[in-house]
Every structure is written in structure tokens, then in C-alpha cells.
Amino acid sequence: MKLIIASNNSGKIREFKQLLEPLGYEVLSQSEAGICIDVEETGNTFEENARLKAEAVYKLSGFSVIADDSGLEVDYLGGEPGIYSARYAPEGGRKKKILEKLEGVPVAQRAARFVCCICYIDGENPIPETVTGVCGGYIGFEERGDNGFGYDPIFMIGDKSFAELSDFEKNAVSHRGAALRKLAEMLGAV
Question: Would you name the residues annotated as active-site residues?
């Protein structure tokens, strides 16, 4: 069955392919499917934004679609950046902004979590279904590591940042990994 990922992010596409192709899905990015849109994320939750993207790509393709929305929530900052994680500051300034806002804040008050919501729309039964994965940790005091992307160098699990973990280690504990495993269970039952 053909499955379109409502994204052109090569890292996300790779993760989706690794998990879904063994289940018999032909996984395509939206550009590989000939769909060139950039859906505005106007929802108030990760779930709403994932659904907006999935529905837009489904309407243009008629095929099964998966979309995700994810981000970082920091307790001390009232849940910021949350759904605005990708737009929290100019490119290259997001991690710095969080570290500056947490300057002088002790480790006990730096709790944070990554959240990933995935919306799936089946081409034959187009009722959106969602799964969510969460990974708890805390914000470190400086950037550490060269692996990963986004907020990974400041998001700590134990004594390592996400950017210090191998892809295998990160996928085993990450928010996206948790959501993808839930999705695979759901699709395996289909």
C-alpha cells in the first residue's frame, strides 16, 4: 500500500521508511508523490497541526497519509516553546534563547519533554487517527554533542544530551520513536 508522509524532512522520511516498509508500505515523501504544499500550522495543539497537514495532503492525493507535529515543552517556561518550537526564534537562535531564559535556574527546575503527535489517514477509510509519544528529560546548561538536530544538544536524558546519543539510542527513547512504535502497532492491526 502506498503511504505518503506529509513532509519533505529527510530525517523524518528515513525514520518512517525504516519502520513502515517492513510492514509492506511503499513510503513516499509528499514531493516524491508530486505534492508541493506548505501547510500553515494554525492549530492550538500538536494533534491539531498534525491533522491539518495530513488532511491537506490526503485531499490532494487520495492516498493514505501520515503527518507529524512535534516540539519541546519546558516546564519553567510555562510549556514554551511548545507548538511554536520551529518558530521560537530565528534559525540558529532557538537553543540560545532557551538557555538564556533558564540562566541561573537550578537543574531541579529545568524539567522538559519532547512531544510528537502523528496523524494517520487511511486512503480507504479517511477518518484521522492520532498517536502521541513523549520523552521526558531536562534542559542542560550548555550545548553538548554533534548528533541530532534542533534542540537535541540542550535536551538531556540522564547525563547525556540527545545530540550525544547514537541514532539507535535516541530512537529507543525519543518521542518520535515512541509515536512511531504506536503507529506501527496500529497499522499492523489494520
Answer: 69
Q: Is 41 helix (H, G, I), strand (E, B) or coil?
A: coil
- Please list, in sequence order, all residues whose beta carbon lies within 8 angstroms of the beta carbon of residue 35, skipping any fewer than 6 positions away: 4, 57, 60, 61
Q: What is the pTM of this model?
A: 0.90
User: What's the one-letter identity of residue 113?
Assistant: R
Q: By the 8 A CB rule, do 56 and 39 touch?
A: yes
First to last CA, the chain: 12
Question: DSSP character for 154?
Answer: G
- Tens of pLDDT, residue by residue over 112-142, are 999 999 999 998 888 999 999 999 999 999 9
Rounded Cα distance, 155 and 169, in Å:
14
Residue type, 82: G
